[in-house]
Specification:
The chain has a five-stranded mixed β-barrel with strand order 9-10-11-13-12. With 464 residues, it is of the alpha+beta class. Strand 12 (249-255) and strand 13 (259-273) form a beta hairpin. It is built from 16 helices and 16 strands. Helix content is 41%, strand content 21%. It is elongated and about 100 Å long.
């Protein structure tokens, strides 16, 4: 086979235009001609460079596909008495058709990108070839498929590998995950994904999973948490040991390659192994090994068992419902559990991220409601609050509970080294006149110094 024919056949294989017989001929030729192997390696590198250069375009295409899918799902239901020309779906479809036509005109998919020329195919390159004994497999280009999910939160870089690719790419926040893509988190990186049906999926560090269908996930290793939105079709999580399915539930699933563990935190789930399906109720967990389901028992405290999610939750808004609920669960458990220190440690592990939610909680609850939780929140605030919370702390000096005021005053003294002649004890036990004088002094001090400390509240205003 002459060099020109060899190059043409290699290009055909890279472009997925060669049939099985042609690929076999090329494999045989490269096994017996080192220069053809060199040429193949060089063209493959060029092809990889092109695919990397257009990776962003592929991700954007997947993002457009996800938006189109969400638009179609949100269209109003058709009423039979509405004339054809006034039906909203007709206008939507016409708009989508126009959009795809515009995209086709811009991207021109019928035109192949020209490969960059490379004059380095010389005898010097032959000397760098490692003996292989047989032709190495030529990777095939990826095909963009319908988007299955979107990356919404991440504590660090999250990598994706499109179907058929060898190269990993960083996925931007709000980036779309196409069908067949692998999603990978590294050490100390966790993330949250959202799906078009409203489900949320969180990945712990060192986790790899793949989206096969909109509600079908294959996990290779690691740990995931999923809040599955109700749907007529079940969400499926496939591991090497078994398959988990649920129509609506909150699940915690871990897999190390040898065995898996499922915790059902809310709802129910069906686990199918070698012996058939088994239903696991909320508050229970089960172990799977080699397709055998064993060890069903009551699950441990869900807040502690999912503490790895704290790094993701701290990225949410202070008034986020789930974050508020989690902190309140932890606050409630501090005073009523033998593991009080563990629950407090969980709050403290959120660091400054736990401060705005606790301030929000103190603002929106009356002094005579949930008193134990409020006191615990104020006590932890005294240690964790940072200077950007000074304005909120000054506002909390008006709280109706003396113990809350005591801890708030401790926080302000720690942050500013000021008391204005009213100690934390006086804020708890002193007269209203003493507190009013000090409160006015704090407000005056803040007016004069807020530019030095950032000047703005860091917590949302209460709506109650």
């Amino acid at each position: 086979m002459d060099p020109s024919s060899s190059e043409e056949l290699i290009n055909a294989v890279l472009d997925r235009e060669a049939d099985a017989n042609s690929q076999a001929v090329l494999t045989h030729h490269m096994a017996n001609d080192s220069s053809a192997q060199v040429l193949s390696d060089q063209l493959r590198r060029q092809d990889e460079q092109l695919r990397r250069a257009f990776a962003t375009r592929r991700i954007k295409a997947a993002d457009i596909a996800l938006r189109v899918e969400q638009t179609l799902q949100n269209l109003p239901r058709i009423q039979s008495d509405v004339p054809m020309f006034r039906r909203p779906w007709l206008a939507a479809l016409l708009g989508l058709a126009a959009g795809f036509l515009l995209a086709a005109m811009l991207f021109r998919p019928w035109q192949k990108a020209e490969r960059p020329t490379d004059d380095s195919r010389t005898a010097q390159t032959v000397g760098t070839v490692e003996p292989t004994g047989a032709a190495r497999a030529i990777p095939q280009p990826a095909i963009v498929e319908i988007a299955m999910a979107r990356l919404t939160l991440a504590t660090g870089p999250v990598e994706i590998r499109p179907r058929g690719e060898l190269q990993l790419f960083n996925c931007p926040v709000r980036g779309a995950i196409a069908g067949g893509m692998e999603v990978c988190t590294g050490e100390q990186v966790s993330c949250e994904l959202s799906t078009p049906d409203g489900s949320a999926i969180r990945m712990n560090s060192d986790t790899t999973l793949r989206f096969d269908q909109p509600r079908a996930i294959a996990i290779q290793r690691g740990q995931l948490w999923s809040s599955v939105a109700r749907s007529s079709s079940p969400m499926s999580i496939e591991a090497v040991d078994a398959i988990v399915q649920t129509e609506e539930a909150v699940l915690d699933f871990s897999c190390n390659g040898q065995q898996s563990r499922l915790r059902v935190l809310r709802g129910t789930a069906r686990v199918t192994g070698k012996a058939g399906p088994k239903t696991v109720q909320a508050g229970h967990e089960i172990t799977m090994q080699n397709g055998t389901l064993t060890g069903e028992k009551s699950t441990d405290d869900s807040v502690l068992s999912t503490s790895w999610m704290n790094n993701v939750l701290r990225l949410k808004a202070p008034d986020d419902t789930e974050l508020q609920d989690r902190i309140q669960q932890l606050l409630a458990s501090i005073g009523s559990s033998k593991l009080a220190n563990l629950y407090e440690d969980e709050i403290r592990s959120l660091g400054e991220g736990s401060v705005p939610p606790m301030i929000f909680f103190l603002r929106r609850t009356p002094a005579d409601a949930q008193r134990n939780k409020r006191i615990e929140a104020a006590r932890i605030l005294a240690d964790l609050a940072a200077t950007q919370s000074i304005s909120d702390l000054i506002t909390l000096l008006d709280d109706g509970d003396g113990l809350v005021r005591f801890h708030v005053a401790r926080a302000l003294q720690r942050l500013t080294d000021n008391t204005f002649d009213c100690s934390p004890t006086q804020w708890r036990d002193g007269t209203a006149d003493e507190r009013a004088h000090a409160r006015q002094a704090w407000q005056q001090w803040w007016t004069e110094n807020k530019a030095r400390y950032g000047g703005l509240s860091n917590a949302p205003q209460s709506q109650t």
